[in-house]
Prior knowledge:
Blueprint: H1 5-26, H2 33-56, H3 61-74, H4 85-110, E1 111-116, E2 119-124, H5 131-156, E3 162-169, E4 172-180, E5 194-197, H6 199-206, E6 218-224, E7 227-243, E8 246-257, E9 268-270
Parallel strand pairs: 4-9, 5-8
Antiparallel strand pairs: 1-2, 3-4, 3-7, 5-9, 6-7, 7-8
Helix pairs in contact: 1-2, 1-4, 1-5, 3-4, 4-5
Amino acid sequence: MVVYLDTLILDNFCADAALLYCAVKTVKGEAKLWRIFLTALFGTALAVGYTVFKLYYTVPAAVDILVKYGVAAVLPLPAAKFKKKRTYALCSLAFVGYMFALAGMLTALFAQISPNEGEGELTYTLFRLPSGVLVAGCVLVVVFGIRFAKMLTRHGKTAAYIFTCRLTLGGSSAEAKAFVDTGNRLKDRRGNPVAVAERSLALSLLADGLFTGKTPCEKQAVETVNGKSELTVFRIDELEIYFRGKAHIVRDVAVAISPRPLAGEYSLILPPAFAKEEDFEGKGE
């Protein structure tokens, strides 16, 4: 067995750094590159030392598995600081998960089982696989891992799914239960998010101005799973959103009237941009 130390060091360092970065971002930690690089360097030293040790000494399979996965579980701990202890455990689980994903991807691409005197033997479809392939694989894992982490963060920043709201237009106001729909990507002509209201809620606000022309409405083309359609859109003075005894006010809000009743115990659909947790910090009701 021939081991090229330069290749072993480069491959291990790149893989450890990439997977640690993904793991820290997934659990919403602060990914400081110097901590991640030092941790990856430490992991690389352990991996290289253990590989050299196995060249001269036989290690039982059970001990080998314990050492490998024990190090994999502990390695993410110094990569970042977290406020809660359970986040360290989640970071370790994320690291091991990404490790399996990378190993599985590379095995699927570059390994195959071929018969050898009646026994299955693992061989590689590309001999002397260049380190650049593993580095490229690490980059792909980071790209998809960060996208996954951003998706989790985006969902986590939504304070709750159901809110109590007050809509105000001129001298009229109405209370409603609102549902935060991450799929609501409607934009008005100014490029701002649009809330969607049931017809009955909209009429309670528009009643005073419907026949006087004081409440201008406009048609806006939208594209949904059912195809293209037009929604009637009007603007309200302010939308007050209540959550955990605190309130967040959004002024000059575009509201679209839903052509059909909304499902569930709510009459208003909010875009995610209206219900971020940081919007409620330090605000009293």
